[in-house]
């Protein structure tokens, strides 16, 4: 969350949106870590499988692994949707300003 603290926020972007967008990188790294865990678990090298077996907890790990892949994609889509909404609201505001200036 500290990636954007030193940078000024873009116009129309709230602090919450900036936090959400800056979390994409950490979520992506978590997904890659889960992928590496899965690869290590499937490699037919016994000492490596022992390590992954010790790290494996139960079915919750499988659910968390799936969530780790879904969540970054969802955050990316959500940030993109917020940006579109912001652009639409600005264009509507500009159109209404132009419309009112035509009648003045």
Automatic annotation (TrEMBL):
Transmembrane segments: 20-47, 53-77
Top-level taxon of the source organism: Eukaryota
Keywords in alphabetical order: Membrane, Transmembrane, Transmembrane helix
PANTHER family (alphabetical): EQUILIBRATIVE NUCLEOBASE TRANSPORTER 1 (PTHR20765:SF1), SOLUTE CARRIER FAMILY 43 MEMBER 3-RELATED (PTHR20765)
Protein name: Uncharacterized protein
């Amino acid at each position: 969350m500290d990636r954007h603290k030193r940078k000024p926020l873009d116009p129309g972007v709230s602090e919450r949106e900036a936090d959400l967008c800056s979390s994409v990188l950490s979520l992506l790294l978590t997904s890659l870590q889960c992928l590496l865990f899965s690869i290590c678990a499937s490699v037919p090298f016994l000492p490596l499988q022992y390590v992954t077996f010790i790290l494996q907890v139960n079915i919750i790990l499988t659910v968390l692994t799936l969530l780790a892949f879904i969540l970054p994609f969802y955050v990316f889509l959500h940030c993109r949707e917020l940006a579109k909404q912001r652009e639409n609201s600005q264009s509507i505001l500009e159109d209404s300003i132009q419309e009112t200036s035509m009648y003045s």
